[in-house]
Amino acid sequence: MITLLITFFIMMISIRAGEISKVHAWVADQLSNAVNELTATITQRGIAGLVIGHDSRGVRIVIHDKKMFDPGKADPNPKLETHIKSIADAIRDLGILHLEQNPNLRSWIDEFVKNGLEWKVEIRVEGYTDNIPIIEGSNYRDNWELSAARAQVVMRMLQKFTRLPEAMFAVSGYGEYRPVRANTSTADRDLNRRVEIIINATLVKRQ
Length: 207
Fold this sequence. Notes:
Blueprint: H1 2-45, E1 50-55, E2 58-64, H2 78-92, H3 106-114, E3 117-128, H4 143-162, E4 169-173, H5 186-192, E5 194-205
C-alpha cells in the first residue's frame, strides 16, 4: 500500500509539473508574438534607432539616446517624442493586451478564470547613462538621478500616448552601473546611454 501511495503522489506531481510547463510555454509564446508584432510595426513605419528583442525580463525595446536628450538633461528632444508616439501606437495594439478578443485563446482564458488567475501586463521603463560625470549646473546630483528622470519622462509620454492605465507602468534608473559596453569610446558610450521599455506579462492570483 505504501508503494502504491508513493507511486500515486509521484504521478500527481508529474501531471502538475506537466501542466505548469504548458502554461510557461503558453506565456512565452504570447511574449514572442508581441516581439513579432512590434518588429513588424516598427519596420513598416521605418523607425530607426530601436532594438527589439526578448529576454528573461520580457519584451525589450531599446532606444539609444544619442539624440533623445541633451547632456545632463531630461527634457526630451522632439525626435524622441515622435519615436515614443510610434512605439505607443504599436504597444496599444499588441495582442497580449487584448487576449480576451482572440477566439483561439478563449479556452485558455476560461481555464485561467476558473482557477482564480488573471493575465497581468506591466510596462517598465528603465534609464541608463554612460560613466561621464554630470556636468556643472545640471538639475541632477548624479547619473543615477538623471537616468531615473529620463525614464520617468519616457514613461509619462508612453502612458499619455497609449492611454493605458497608470497602474500598469513603472520606472527604474540604473545610471552608469549596467553598461552594455565598456565606456572606452564615443560609440560605446552612445550605446550605454539608453532607455529600455520592458513589457512583461504573467498570470497572477485574482484579487
